[in-house]
């Protein structure tokens, strides 16, 4: 479309913005902030709700940062506002310490890799990659050096004279990455670039993208709805829902210590339900359905939500300090594993088990499930 063509042109012609890293608000000992959202909201014309609602967020120099969420969560709107294709309705976005309100995309030191790669079909891969340098009238010898260096980085040297229609999906993606990287932007924005690839190639490209980011040292801001991509590649990640940020943290923090019921239910597979923490004989005790378990002494008392990862539930006696009896409701075969739904005291626990264990079970069969009390996470809300 003409709009996409215009956005591609602007995204490829980005000179460096003035400014220096290390601004007020940076944390001593941490890498400086290169992208800052300061209470940013976005309302599109004709909309009755905010696509982005009061987002404040710092993205550090040199990190692989993912924005994860379902469709309509606001993640792509955040990316487009960094790029300059959309403007905030309120709040500020700072790139390298500079407020970029009103600054067009071609004057921002960022580049974008689009979902469909947006390569020029009438140009060879070498011409595609060199395009932004030629538009900036970079000297021919420097263009040749930088294009060769960048194509080597993405392992595309031998395919440089081919045209986009002669490449596989993974090769086109690497070509689009090379074109975005050749200008050496401070920030590379990636808008679900693996969405069109098959599962095996997508998994291969996850590893390749992370290694590439380490090699070039550029800040990557990666938008995806695929939690596997975000967990496997990110240094840190933000989880969004309905325009809000639910949690920011490392993949390990977000996965094992979700801050909200939404994060617990959206990331991985969790047993999630309402319960309460009460004081019994001077000790904190969690009550979840008909199950009781000890909690840490400093656990807040009162109603809450509980989350327990399905891989934390074992179907072997003695595997955890909390053991319950139940019956098998359903077994779902997943190839390398099985999900076993166990009815326990008026609730259902989902356990992840080896495939051969799942095959040995039948609906209605009595079974023992166990877990460690320390792996139950209390969540406000």
What this model shows, in words?
- The structure is a single chain.
- The protein is α+β, with helices and mostly antiparallel strands.
- It is built from ten helices and 19 strands.
- It has helices at 2-12, 75-83, 125-135, 140-153, 169-181, 199-216, 227-233, 251-256, 261-266, 355-359; strands at 33-42, 52-60, 64-68, 90-95, 98-99, 110-113, 187-191, 219-224, 236-241, 244-249, 270-280, 283-288, 291-294, 302-309, 322-333, 337-344, 347-354, 366-371, 377-379.
- A hairpin with a 2-residue loop joins strand 11 and strand 12.
- Helix 3 (125-135) runs parallel beside helix 5.
- The protein is globular.
- It starts with a helix and ends with a strand.
- Widest β-sheet, arrangement of strands: 6-7-8-3-9-10
Could you estimate the helical fraction of the residues in percent?
25-40%
Given the helix and strand composition, which structural class is it?
alpha+beta
Shape: globular
Instruction: Indicate the mean pLDDT.
Output: 88
Give the percentage of residues in beta strands.
Answer: 25-35%
Helix run count: 10
CA-atom Rg in angstroms: 24 Å
Structure summary, number of beta strands:
19
């Amino acid at each position: 479309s003409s709009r996409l063509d215009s956005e591609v042109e602007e995204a490829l012609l980005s000179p460096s913005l003035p400014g220096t890293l290390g601004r007020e608000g940076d944390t001593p000992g941490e890498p400086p902030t290169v992208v800052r959202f300061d209470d940013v909201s976005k309302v599109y014309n004709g909309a009755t709700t905010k696509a982005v609602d009061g987002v404040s967020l710092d993205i550090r120099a040199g990190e692989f940062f993912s924005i994860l969420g379902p469709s309509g969560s606001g993640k792509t709107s955040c990316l487009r506002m960094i790029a300059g294709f959309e403007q905030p309705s309120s709040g500020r976005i700072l790139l390298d310490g500079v407020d970029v309100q009103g600054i067009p995309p071609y004057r921002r030191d960022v580049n974008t890799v689009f979902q469909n790669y947006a390569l020029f079909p009438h140009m060879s891969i070498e011409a595609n990659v060199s395009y932004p340098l030629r538009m900036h009238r970079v000297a021919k010898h420097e263009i040749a050096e930088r294009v060769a260096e960048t194509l080597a980085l993405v392992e595309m040297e031998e395919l440089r004279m081919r045209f986009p229609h002669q490449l596989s999906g993974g090769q086109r993606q690497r070509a689009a990455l090379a074109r975005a990287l050749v200008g050496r932007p401070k920030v590379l924005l990636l808008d679900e670039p693996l969405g069109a690839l098959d599962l095996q190639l997508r998994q291969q490209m996850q590893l390749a993208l992370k290694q590439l980011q380490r090699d070039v040292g550029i800040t990557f801001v990666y938008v995806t709805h695929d939690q596997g991509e975000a967990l496997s590649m990110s240094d840190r990640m933000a989880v969004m829902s309905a325009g809000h940020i639910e949690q920011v943290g490392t993949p390990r923090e977000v996965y094992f210590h979700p801050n909200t019921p939404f994060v617990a239910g959206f990331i991985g597979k969790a047993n999630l339900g309402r319960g309460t923490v009460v004081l019994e004989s001077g000790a904190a005790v969690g009550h979840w359905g008909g199950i009781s378990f000890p909690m840490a002494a400093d656990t807040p008392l009162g109603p809450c939500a509980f989350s327990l990862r399905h891989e934390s539930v074992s179907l072997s006696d003695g595997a955890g300090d909390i053991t319950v009896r139940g019956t098998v409701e359903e077994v779902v075969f997943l190839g390398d594993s099985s999900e076993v739904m166990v009815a326990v005291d008026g609730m259902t626990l989902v356990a992840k088990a080896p495939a051969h264990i799942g095959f040995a079970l039948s609906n209605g069969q009595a079974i023992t499930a166990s877990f460690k009390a320390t792996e139950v996470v209390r969540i406000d809300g």
